[in-house]
Amino acid sequence: GEDQPGSTASAVEKQGPYASRGRHKKKKKPPPSAVPTTVVSNEDLCMDLYLASLHDLLDRLMAPLQPRHTLFLSIDGASVAKVPEKRNRRLKYRGPQRVWRAALTPGTRAMQQIADGAWEWALGYATRLGISCMLSDAQVSQEGETKIFNYILRRACIDPDTTFAVISKDSDTFVQGLACLTRHVFFVTYDVKPQTRRVELHVYSLWRAALACAYSLHVAFAAARCTSVPGADRHRDQLVFAPWAPTSTNASKAADPGPDPALGSDPQKVMQAPAGQGKRLLTEETGFPR
Question: InterPro entries under this entry (predicted)?
């Protein structure tokens, strides 16, 4: 005989070698009652760890700089029309112990808590060093770098010999610093080592960078300002104000200036600004900080 339908051998043949897979029960989905009913908004966040990390980063950044007069902190304060766009760009998953990036938007409660924490740190730091401190939070419109350089321009008009250090990782800050045309302004960027939490600073002179851009475009400005025919009328409407552009009517020198005689053997000596122009922000002696 053949095995009966109810025998063990026929049951094993029907089930096959992968029959054990069906014996494990599948995990059931949790009932709806186990799911949290309260939805955490982007403003309802625990900021203790975030603010502690922010204070630690600020301490590490300011340790090698040691400001002597004023500490100015600036936070982006974008207009209301730009807030929805920023929120849409920052909609990302919020992991454990991490602040949701959409909350880092002007007008949110989390941003106000960050501003309060930054002001608390600034007061303590300024008190220890005996200096003054200022904070422009998200309630004030304009981008952070715009507010920083507005303060630098006002301060430079009062005391041109003041040295400024702008700490930022935004490339817009560097570009806006090139248009500032103020001496003794240094752009400071930083890198944080994830393992050791060590901060490495990189310092660049915005004045030297602006002069480098000016001399690299020297030939183009000269060609646009003077025609190739000597004695011809200049195209003044084709060129914006450039204090470093030549004022001589010699078109041949403007077309092919060659080595700059104003530099000579001293690399720190630069061309003088035209008379009556650029005296407030541009000096007539040296362009590089000593």
Answer: 5_3_exoribonuclease, Xrn1_N
